[in-house]
Amino acid sequence: MSKPIRFALLGCGTVGGGVAELVARDGTYLARRIGAPLELAHVLVRDLGKVRRDVPASLVTTDAERVLSDPSVDVVVEVMGGEEPAGSYLERALRAGKSVVTANKALLAVRAPSLLAAANEHHADLAFEASVGGAIPIVRALRDHLVSDWVRSLRGIVNGTCNYILTRMRDEGASFTEVLRAAQELGYAEAEPSLDVDGHDAAHKLCVLALLAFGAVVRPDEVPTEGIRAIEPIDLRFAARFGYAIKHLAVGRETRGEGGPLLDLRVHPALVPARAPLASVDGVLNAIALEAEGAGAQVLVGRGAGALPTAVSVVADLVDVARARRAGVSGLLTEGLDVARRPLAPARAQEAIWYLRMRVLDRPGVLAQIAGALGQSSVSIEQMVQEGGSGRRASDSDDDETRVIVMLTHSASERDVRAALTVIDALAFVRAPSLALRVEQ
Ligand code: NAP
Ligand code: HSE
After folding, report:
1. CA–CA separation, 221 and 128 (whole Å)
2. In 16-67, at which residue ranges do the beta strands (DSSP E only) sit?
3. Can you give the pLDDT at residue 318?
4. Distance, CA 380 to ligand 2 centroid (Å)?
């Protein structure tokens, strides 16, 4: 057996703790698969006072310099999160010829091109399976398997926290705040959970997916992004009545523009037909549905967050890069990956069927004014339901006078739908901001 492959762990929280656990549990087997033992060299943290299982206390440090300047370290595993100082640490490691494994999609979304360049220049590996889809091998699928094909579209449930919250709201009518707290306790949520519920984590992941699927360098602030805060149990109920589930999606597809192909990238909650594979992906599960030219359709499903599902992907990467180092062929993982800026489709021009929900006072003429405002913006109604009245409240938070009107439209652009809702929400009988969700066929 070759000499040990020494790795430093930057971060030892939910994911880092899982990585330490797997390496401690399966070290002998992993050594056989790599052809060399894995040796934990350092564990960088913020707080020396916390108890860490599976990690010798003598290796735990807050001294980043000591970790990064150690020439005996072969691989840096970054599971601390955030853009800085993680980004600088990883650039430095790659420039020193060390291989890097990271789960940090927030960092990759903004710095992948420079990290890839550093990896290529210094013949080091940059592996990031855990950055999207938790335990799902989506990075390998796009980077390695589909190297022989062209991806034309993808739709993913890529945030476990959002999917967990929507599922429990639907099944138990549980409150948003209560379920978010549970997701945090289970280790699903980001250190700053607004990254999850406001859609930014999914946008970060979509940037990573766009890089691998379409060779596109896209900044997260260019991706139209909506979260799930506006979704209520009543929407999940109405969607089911119309034959749909509501899922938080990251969508990427190639479309035709006047001047050539454009990339349509979006993150938002959407209604998905109940018979579609994504509709039954519940709880913390993630799924990515791909449409590729030769391979056709495929769907990858698995646990999208949590300590061990994520650590499984991190350790798989660690094994890959350790094997490459032992064989003296580091740097092949992302070598030749062509990435460039690509023109994006104007988001608000894209057409869709829409689910609209409005809260109004029960007054004569209300429906006529709503239909009029929609008609003025060329949005036509396909079906409509009204709830409340006759002593029944549409939801616990509504009073006896409030009616909830829900409709599905015919195909219309987002620009037209938003214009109509601006007019509708200014009408005196409207009690709360209206909600518009796309239907993804
Ligand atoms: P976490 O539980 O908050 O752990 C973060 C770890 O990094 C902690 O050990 C923390 O030290 C350490 N750390 C943070 N900033 C540091 C700094 N400036 N210097 C030194 N140490 C620092 O986070 P996590 O859930 O494990 O997530 C880690 C990364 O994995 C993030 O990029 C996240 O997006 C990604 N990820 C997470 C999941 C998941 O399910 N949780 C799934 C996929 C990807 P202390 O322990 O001393 O506070
Ligand atoms: N907070 C993320 C999620 C972790 O809920 O999906 C996995 O990337």
Report:
1. 21
2. 38-44, 60-61
3. 98
4. 37
Contact criterion met (CB below 8 Å) for 22 and 101:
no
Helices marked H in 259-365 — which ranges?
307-327
Residue that is written with structure tokens 């180092």 in the block: 325
Shortest CA distance to 235 belongs to which of 352, 356, 399?
Answer: 356
At 396 the pLDDT is 65
Here the tokens at position 18 are 């899982």
Rounded-to-integer distance, Cα 376 and Cα 420, Å: 7
Closest CA to 156 of 197, 207, 193, 118: 207
Q: By three-state DSSP, how is residue 187 classified?
A: coil
CB 155 within 8 A of CB 334: no
Task: Determine if ligand 1 sits within 6 Å of the CB of residue 305.
Answer: yes
Four-CA torsion 276, 279, 282, 285, nearest 10 degrees: 50
Tens-place pLDDT, residues 315-358: 999 999 999 999 999 999 999 998 999 999 987 888 999 999 99
**In the predicted structure, residue 174 carries a pLDDT above the cut 90:** no
Full set of structural domains in the chain with CATH: 5-131+307-337 (3.40.50.720), 139-303 (3.30.360.10), 349-439 (3.30.70.260)
Q: What is the pLDDT of residues 259-297, one digit of tens each?
A: 888 999 999 999 999 999 999 999 999 999 999 999 999
pTM over 0.85: yes
- Any idea what DSSP says for residue 267? E
Give me the half-sphere count of Cα atoms (radius 13 Å) on the Cβ side of residue 322: 29
Among 9, 21, 22, 45, which residue has the most ligand 1 atoms within 8 Å of its CB, making it the best to mutate?
Answer: 45
Looking at the CA of 309, which ligand is closest?
A: 1
Distance (Å, rounded) from C-alpha 371 to C-alpha 368?
Answer: 5
- The secondary element (H helix, E strand) that includes residue 300 is strand 296-303
Strand partners, 294: none
Q: Distance, CA 365 to ligand 1 centroid (Å)?
A: 55
The residue assigned the tokens 């990585």 is 19
Spacing, Cα 137 to ligand 1 middle (Å)? 21
> Is 134 a pocket residue for ligand 2 (Cβ < 6 Å)?
yes
Q: Which of 246, 241, 253 is nearest to 226 (CA)?
A: 246
pLDDT in tens, 81-129: 999 999 999 999 999 999 999 999 999 999 999 999 999 999 999 999 9
Write out the catalytic residue numbers: 205
